[in-house]
Amino acid sequence: MANRSKAKPRSGCPVSLSLERFGDRWSLLVIRDLMVRGYRTFKEFQEAGEGIATNILADRLRNLEAAGIVSAEKAGDDGRRVHYRLTEKGIDLAPVLLELLMWGAKHEGAGASCAAILKMEKKRVQIVAEARRRWKERDSTPLIPGPRRERSGKDSAIGNGFWRGDAKARNPQRTKSPKEGWTARRVKR
What we know:
Layout: H1 14-22, H2 25-37, H3 42-46, H4 54-66, E1 70-74, E2 82-86, H5 88-91, H6 94-107, H7 114-122, H8 124-136, H9 147-152, H10 160-164, E3 172-177, E4 181-186
Antiparallel strand pairs: 1-2, 3-4
């Protein structure tokens, strides 16, 4: 695949220009893993469970670096290892990624509970601020619990209670009210 960061833009449309930089499936998943899961190494990206081939991953990391969205730094403990990090341009994608996450959970049956989706919708500003804080402080604690949490035992930076919701919304099922949109209700077992 040609290096997309040097290709001539299709148009001057901001959406088209943005998609040329990070609009393929793999680039967005790498950005997600950096921002949300706290991944930093090639191995962590490859073991994220998405099934990305090593040559595709290497190409996407190169393209994201060339576009100024990701930077590569030598690991302090081992100069042979590289740690990837979002740049300021990359962390500015936090609101976009959050909206994609909520849209996918709401409309594509991603398996996220309604309580979690409702909490994200209500706390957009706080979630984006937390992502930016973690980036500034180089905190790689996962923002949203995911596969890394199970593997490492690390807790989410936002905290357990943030994503679980209150006791009444622990077992949600999707329902849709015409006036309110998606809501969560407790399912009796």
